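step 4 of 6: structure.
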Amino acid sequence: MRRLLRRKLALFGCAIIVLVVGGAVLAPWIAPYPPDEQLFEGLTLLGEPLPPGGDFLMGTDLLGRDLLSRMLYGAQTSLIIGVVANGVALVIGTLVGVLAGFMRGWIGAVLMRFTDLMMAFPALLLAICLAAIFQPSLWIVAMVIALVNWVQTARVVYTETTALSEREFIAAEKTLGASRSRILFRHILPHLVPTLIVWGTLGISVTVLLEATLSYLGVGVQPPTPSWGNIIFENQTYFQAAPWLVFIPGAAILLLALAFNLVGDALRDVLDPTQRGND
Amino acid sequence: MAGYLFRRLVQSALILLGVSFITFVLLYVLPADPVRQIAGRSATAQTVENIRTQLGLDQPLLVQYGRYLAGLVQGDMGRSYLQKTEVSTLIAARLPASLLLMVGGIACELVIGLTLGVVAAVWRGRPLDQGLMVTSFVAVSAPQFVVGLLLLYVFAVQLGWFPIGGYGTAAHLVLPAVTLGIMGSGWYSRMMRSSMIDVLRQDYIRTARAKGLTRSRVLMRHALPNAILPIIAMIGIDIGIFMGGIVVVESVFGWPGIGQLAWQAIQRVDIPIIMGVTMVSAAAIVLGNLLADIITPLVDPRIRLR
Amino acid sequence: QEYTPDPNAKPGGMITVTYKDDVATLDPAIGYDWQNWSMIKSLFDGLMDYVPGTTELRPGLASAYEINENGTVFTFTLREGVTFHNGRVMTAEDVKYSLDRVTNPETQSPGAGFFASIAGYDEMASGTATSLSGVEVIDPQTVKITLSRPDATFLHVMALNFASVVPKEAVEEYGTDFGKHPVGTGAFKLGEWSIGQRLVFEKNADYWRDGVPYLDGVTFEVGQEPIVALLRLQQGEVDVPGDGIPPAKFQEVMGDPEQAARVVEGGQLHTGYITLNVAMEPLDKLPVREAINMAINKERITQIINGRAVPATQPLPPSMPGYTEGYEGYAFGVEAAKAKLEEAGLSDGFSTELYVMNTDPNPRIAQAIQQDLKAIGVDVDIRSLAQANVIEAGGAGQAPMIWSGGMAWIADFPDPSNFYGPILGCAGAGEGGWNWSKFCDESIDDMATKADSMTDPSDPERLKMWSDVYMKVMEEAPWVPVFNEQRYTMKSARMGGDDALYVDPVSIPVNYDYVYVTE
Amino acid sequence: MTALHSAAAPEGAAEPLLRVRDLTVSVRDRGVVRPLVAGLSFDLHGGETLAIAGESGSGKSITSLALMGLLPNNVSVTSGQALLDGIDLPSLPEARMRAWRGARLAMIFQEPMTSLNPVQNIGDQLTEAIRAHEPVSRRDAAAQALVALRKVRIPEPERRMRQYPHELSGGMRQRVMIAMALALRPALLIADEPTTALDVTVQREVLDLLRELQTETGTAIILITHDMGVVAETADRVVVMRQGRMVESAPVETLFATPSQDYTRALLAAVPRLGAGAARAKPLPPATPAPVARLMDVQVHFDIGANFLGQATHRVHAVEGVSFDIRPGETFGLVGESGCGKSTIAKALAGLVPHEGRVEVDGKALAGLTVQGRRAICRDIQMVFQDPMAALDPRMTVGVAVAEPMVIHGIGTAEERHARVADLFQRVGLNPEQMSRYPHEFSGGQRQRICIARALSLRPKLIICDESVSALDVSVQAQVLDLLAELQRETGVSYLFISHDMAVVENVVDRLGVMYMGQIVEMGTRDQVFGNPRHSYTTRLLDAVPIPDPTRRMPPRPERDLDLPSPIRPIGEASRRVRMRNIGEEHFVAEED
Ligand SMILES: Nc1ncnc2c1ncn2[C@@H]1O[C@H](COP(=O)(O)OP(=O)(O)OP(=O)(O)O)[C@@H](O)[C@H]1O
Ligand SMILES: Nc1ncnc2c1ncn2[C@@H]1O[C@H](COP(=O)(O)OP(=O)(O)OP(=O)(O)O)[C@@H](O)[C@H]1O
Ligand SMILES: [Mg+2]
Ligand SMILES: [Mg+2]
């Protein structure tokens, strides 16, 4: 019963992801307007944006652009940030955490001290500096985000790896003569999957919003390229005058993160043979 | 214990050294000239050069860094380029407010996050649990600026329960602390939930129930202290995450902390202030981690410091 | 010419003013932010001053002044019995000390350059002298200032905050912290300052102008988001939101007659413009610059900022003396613009970059500009950066185009020359200068120098010359003047005083010395 | 003895304290209701001990949890009654049940290591239990708790009150559990495998204690165990369960003397008995000059503690100068109490911990080998761990797990490996069709077979069995032991057999060493050590073994010092070495003072 429900939720999650990815990919064909065209009829004579309805299903923004079109194009950016940048951060964090936790010795110590250093380093400042030094483009921003966001994952993975490598089946594996890399990839990594799913899915909102913060600081994706995060940030002071400009992209980020979480949960169940829907 | 502390302090100092060096280098290569900002728009090339020499900004990077470090160990963080005031004075004036906000924020995220997490764990699998987990995503995904303004609008302007921004009394602290804590509470509720589910499966919980304790006592006295253990280490990490949020929250609520100082300094490349704030926040993070590591064994008698 | 005090004014009461940014310093030699500018004005006085709410000069600490024939020697007679906040009587020595201090490189004053016309300035700047040779103390009540060249704006310079008179002993006592412990002769003195929270100004009971200030004091609360400040104003906790009405709330306020009635609108000496780097391909071609001038839809841009500005035709704002009435500027026309591009051999357009400071509404304006230029085939990449980075790029001449908003030129003093030197003249065109279009035309520079060498700043002939200067500039089109921002100051119901005081061109947001409360 | 029993169990005279009738407990799993315990009935009188015996998974724990009202969420009592003093426990509302729990009926759980709250001190956990039921002040409760601790004869009870569970040994923890359960003098005490996790010597003490407390307080006890020795030593009546149903219920003597059911008979037959080993004797393999493995003065140390510079301050002398050989085709046993260093020797041999001294495998020294060399040695030595669940990667199908060693060493093609795995499955008595299942889908015994199959896949010369059968049911244990013996006959593999169960060891080993505090104190052939134990420690171990014969109960022994001497010393301080003496025919005994 609950399993069925879970499956339904996962399906729902999949549907949302497909919808978002589809929207992003098909944006040039399905968007009613070009995303950065400032339509004359998109603003009132006083310069106010239009609420959802009529010609503009999601309303218009402060420059009279169609929000729906911007959301569709913004999905491209946000997917890259939320999935790719966040994914890379997750990979780096996992790699560092696993290596430090498993290698012990000086490699582990050096990696962990480095992680501590990165943790003490104000991430935003680092992002600002990196982005100001390189010219901010979508990929640079994604890289910067990945570079500052791996630290927490590394910490958590480290703790978990240390605990895992104490487990008996790892010792058993060693007595079989398994090489370290084999133990790492075949036996430790799969066990980190649940943790990584939690961190990965929560990380989606965090990175998407971080990209927006960077845009706000002038080091993010440059206008007029839309991203869900910078749509929020651009308009956040207008949350009373034009709430749709904040709440629509906010809901989109939330849904995306939630969708990945639902799919991730299902994936965890599938990947974990011991899990029998009992949590 | 003393030995452990000593080693950790040395380690912390090394980390701070690393942070200071990296920050210094990053600011050095940053494409913005602080002298321009100081000299103003009507300055001549001569004036600009004068100021550059006066501030020693014409020296090689390592010399500048060495000089900064020498000052730093004597507690001298330099003078702000634009305000001409001692950075240490500026930070000292604002740090208490930020620390207070941070403590408030941590308290809020713990109270909100842990409560939600425990409730979700106890009712796990039920609609309430699923609802709470969606809530945790909302909390993580909500932009702080909007949350802050929303809270301010509802609770201060409309209901008048709290003052509209400002600093001073406990009432002033509530809304900013909640705003700051909401994002973290999303994380904590999820972590607490899984930790709690784990603990509730443990044998000693069964023992506690077999003793005939009430459900609430089993939860509060036996499950909670154990479930919290893995969370403590996270609080140290939190301080780092908060440093970002503080800028936004402080400006929404007019909170006189270092976030706004840092923000203005970054906008105008006031390098001594940026350095100072970075060092102070790095120290706070390092200390937070240290504290977490020291607190853990106090809560968990099994862990001995090594 | 003197100001007639408001007959309804009542003394007493405190007001609260809010600002987002912290007050960096109250040292008159250093402070150059727009929020400390008016604060310093109320704490300090210079030899010259303005009639409240206007751009008319009037004597300040000087009771009278004389100018010699060729306008190079100014003799100021000081007022009797003016005391500093510390009780000491101000003398001519203090005037000299203050001018020496502001021009001394050690002080690192951003305003030092304004004094370049005083004899001996160059020696000061290069560090070979410790005192301006052009400033002489004749007797305790008289100062003689000799200029190395005639300077029509000199009296305005003497009204700048940088020329404020400071007491030597206080400066020496506090050293570089003087900015946190200001001591002047102004209408208010600093009471309390808790960094990052609030400053309290107290009425200077011994103020040398009779009857003012009316207020017992002013509380400045800093670190407050403009939106929140407005909410507090609506709750009656704040009297004047220093940062004005936030764009997000503008329609709401103006749509409510009760609130709109408390909004004072006025012009200010501001122009928002796009610099076109004449040293960079293909902006070095005049037709290209003209095309860009024609392509910008200024009406639309003013609409985007809720109509809080008027479209500009030339560098000078309309309320500035020397403004060329009747000049239409480059008319908006896509076809005409395209034709110009074709003339330059760029009928396929080109791509370029537009630098902009990253605070609202500037990136939005940049996007509007981007769209306008796209219509004539010019592809613009927006580089939205922190203020310091934009200034750096502009100074280094790396930026093809810069939207000036946020860092823009609000005149230091109401004189047409103020819009030329550093931002359009050859002096600012060098490496690191503020002339971001790197525009340098010697012949125009000569005209400007000639105009400034006239003694009387308001001489119609001089104003005509300046008008010609800017017309010449417009012919060369190094800028696209986009709009002149209007000022909208909102006040609480209890605030009294002439509307002009709330849009005082030199004292933003209000002239603290002359406003009063009605309850 | 018998007198006491009949007095305690008057046939139908008084009302029984607990009357269980047709108790059925079912689990609701994905909408299907499946009984876990069906139609269970028994009576229990005050002061009596009822043992519930049966293989793992037969529903023993579920029964006890049902009585306590502590069933998991998806499990519930679906029919039948359990009347305590005439009141039906399963139908009591939770609030009243809670008031009874701990006061009227108490429970001791199997795992002393995890059954106490690790972050609360002993005193608090005890007083809390008291105060939950009696309106006494904190101080009075503490006084009562102290009395309870004294009663279970914990040394230094005042100090223990302030200590945390991890600071106590397993035996002490179990005593605390008992103290907690008995503090409020419950009418009924349920002890679910109270000694399974303990050493024989400690088990003996705990059992003695329970028996003593029972005579003192008159509490009725339900003792759940799968150890027939324990049953024989403590119970008045026995209920044998299998697959959720009661197989037989009888007074203990009757059951052991004349079991009426086949299952009971099989169960009793599978119980390893001391002295039975001699019957299975096989010729000792000769002492060849080429042993499979040879340990010479092996030492293993763990450094702990830290000073200012992070240097260790203390050293655990886990293994201190151990020497022995393992000959081809022989089973060498290592016995000793928990913590004496048995596993550490196994680990040193398997290369999991660094050692000092010399370990040779097939004539090659372990230390200083290259990576390739190490891996080659891995093919010769395999290990079978105590807990098969923990030793198998839960995310890997068992087929893959068994093939894993061959993959690691690059043996055969995928098909060949598959064929070999299938073959191995058959060898260890598993169906090759089960290869694609995951470990959790097997029973404990089956899992251990999988581990053995994995160990065999490389055709090693030596298999280390570290407590490999301790966690298994007796019947399963017997099967696994038979399997091991069979494999040895077929392939000539040698075993290093580590166990704390003297009876098992006696049944399987050819030679053995008795370990104490990291050193071997007695070593010889099975007949030498068991038939003629010369070291006092060996005798103590042998005496502690419960005898599965209710007619041969041992009287409670006098107290002995509970605190084992510690193998932890400050760095630099040498530990005292024992000197071994050959008392003939390779029978070595440590000198005692
Ligand atoms: N929560 C549960 N859900 C479903 N089945 C369960 C649950 N708890 C126990 N079982 C099943 O009930 C049966 C009886 O379990 P129980 O724990 O009573 O066995 P046991 O006799 O105590 O075994 P052991 O000697 O291993 O402790 C087992 O088959 C077990 O798998
Ligand atoms: N990694 C380690 N660090 C510190 N001490 C250890 C470590 N491993 C084992 N010890 C200690 O070494 C001693 C011997 O441990 P070992 O595991 O060999 O005992 P054992 O005889 O196998 O006991 P058991 O019957 O409980 O398995 C114990 O005191 C143990 O606490
Ligand atoms: Mg059980
Ligand atoms: Mg062991």
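step 5 of 6: annotate
 - The pocket of adenosine-5'-triphosphate (ligand 2) is lined by residues D 302, 304, 316, 318, 336, 338-344, 500, 567 (CB under 6 Å).
 - Residues 290-590 of chain D form a domain with the Rossmann fold fold (CATH 3.40.50.300).
step 6 of 6: archive
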